[in-house]
Each structure stands twice: as structure tokens, then as C-alpha cells.
Design brief:
The complex is a heterodimer of chains A (about 110) and B (about 110).
Chain A: E1 4-7, E2 10-13, E3 19-25, E4 31-37, E5 44-51, E6 54-57, E7 64-66, E8 76-78, E9 87-94, E10 103-104, E11 108-112
Parallel strand pairs in A: 2-11
Antiparallel strand pairs in A: 1-3, 3-8, 4-5, 4-9, 5-6, 7-8, 9-10, 9-11
Chain B: E1 4-6, E2 11-14, E3 19-25, E4 33-38, E5 45-50, E6 55-57, E7 60-65, E8 70-75, E9 84-91, E10 100-102, E11 106-111
Classes of the chains: A mainly beta (about 110), B mainly beta (about 110).
Chain lengths: ~110, ~110
């Protein structure tokens, strides 16, 4: 079955630690995205990538980094510079320029120890 | 004013009821509108796109009012399984990959 796989489902971060969230898709989609969801708020865009080896900052990129070395993979690193990392992180993909329908992974809940 | 605003609810309705949610948006040039459904701690899933003429999918009807800048979602004959949070999503021109704005969601609880 085609889809987006995020791992892990739950992740705990110690203070000062960098952690990486995995996102893999086999939908052959060009565009991939990372969103953050906090209680009572809408999803906010962290980073997005339209093509391999290229990515752009979203609205809340500070304290995060990404890479897009393969079409299928778009990992997100939450660095120690992100002072409030506790949130639900969602990876998504979409197919083409004119298609804004998003397909989401099942999410990663990140908490700080 | 927020770019996309929704009544957070919760809307508590009995099975079989009809319920409607509104979502207002601030950018009059927006062209694409969607409703997503999100279950607790799960990923959002596309429920319907919203077209200018309005559209229906079974018990669900979506409408767009450009003059007043809002979209609506009507659910008829509510089922227990409709309990979820409904997210309004609007594109902000000029559009493209990074220009979808999500509302905070409206929570629906359907009870027996």
C-alpha cells in the first residue's frame, strides 16, 4: 500500500539534545512538508521541499533543520535551539504544482524530559 | 484577525442530528478551500474540497460564500463515528506548496 510512514510514534528529548524524526513516502510525490500541531492551534508549517536537494523554510523554521537527499525521505531534526519542542509533528506530501491535497503520515508526539 | 478562524466547539449533538460548522478567512483572493477531518492524536484526512458551486458527498455538504468570506460544512444524520475535529484549510495566494493555512479546528462530539 502506498503511503507516508513516520517514526517513531513517540519521542522524548533531553535538554540540549538533537533528535531526528523520520518521514518516508512511497507515493512518488515531489513535494513534502513538516508541520507542527499544538493544542488549540492550527497546523503550522516548519519546512517544505518541492524537489530533491531543495527545501525552504516555512513559518516557524527556527530551531529545526531538514534534508532531502532522496525523493522518498524528508527527515526533520529538532535541535537544542528549539526551546519549546513539545508538540505533535506531522509529515505530509503532495503530488504536483496544482494539486494542493495533502497526504499525512500518522505523526510523532515529541515530549521533553 | 487570524487568516482562518473556526469556532473551536465542542459541538455536542445526538445521533441523527444535523450540524453545521462555519469557517471564515481573511484573504479575499483565496481560491482553494478544503475540509479535513482529524481524530484525536491521528493525522488529518481530506474530507472534501470546497467548490464555488457547493458540493455534496453523501451526508456531507460544503459551501463557499465568497462575498462574506466563509465556507461551511453541513453534516446530516450524524453518526457516532463522525465525532472528530474538523479542520478548515484555505490557500493564501499566490498559492503553491507553502501557502495552505489551517484553522485550529472545530470539535464535534456525537452522543447516543
Amino acid at each position: 500500500d502506498g503511503g507516508i510512514t513516520q517514526s517513531p510514534k513517540y519521542l522524548f528529548r533531553k535538554e540540549g539534545q538533537n533528535v531526528t524524526l523520520s518521514c518516508e513516502q512511497n507515493l512518488n510525490h515531489d513535494a513534502m512538508y513538516w508541520y507542527r500541531q499544538d493544542p488549540g492551534q492550527g497546523l503550522r508549517l516548519i519546512y517544505y521541499s518541492q524537489i530533491v536537494n531543495d527545501f525552504q523554510k516555512g513559518d516557524i523554521a527556527e530551531g529545526y533543520s531538514v534534508s532531502r537527499e532522496k525523493k522518498e525521505s524528508f527527515p526533520l531534526t529538532v535541535t537544542s535551539a528549539q526551546k519549546n519542542p513539545t508538540a505533535f509533528y506531522l509529515c505530509a506530501s503532495s503530488q504536483g504544482d496544482s494539486n494542493e491535497k495533502l497526504f499525512f503520515g500518522s505523526g510523532t508526539q515529541l515530549s521533553v524530559l | 484577525r487570524k487568516e482562518v478562524e473556526q469556532d473551536p466547539g465542542p459541538f455536542n449533538v445526538p445521533e441523527g442530528a444535523t450540524v453545521a460548522f462555519n469557517c471564515t478567512y481573511s484573504n479575499s483572493a483565496s481560491q482553494s478551500f478544503f475540509w479535513y477531518r482529524q481524530d484525536c492524536r491521528k493525522e488529518p484526512k481530506l474530507l472534501m474540497s470546497v467548490y464555488s458551486s457547493g458540493n455534496e458527498d453523501g451526508r456531507f455538504t460544503a459551501q463557499l460564500n465568497r462575498a462574506s468570506q466563509y465556507i461551511s460544512l453541513l453534516i446530516r444524520d450524524s453518526k457516532l463515528s463522525d465525532s472528530a475535529t474538523y479542520l478548515c484549510v484555505v490557500n493564501i495566494p499566490p498559492g503553491g506548496y507553502n501557502k495552505l493555512i489551517f484553522g485550529a479546528g472545530t470539535r464535534l462530539a456525537v452522543h447516543p
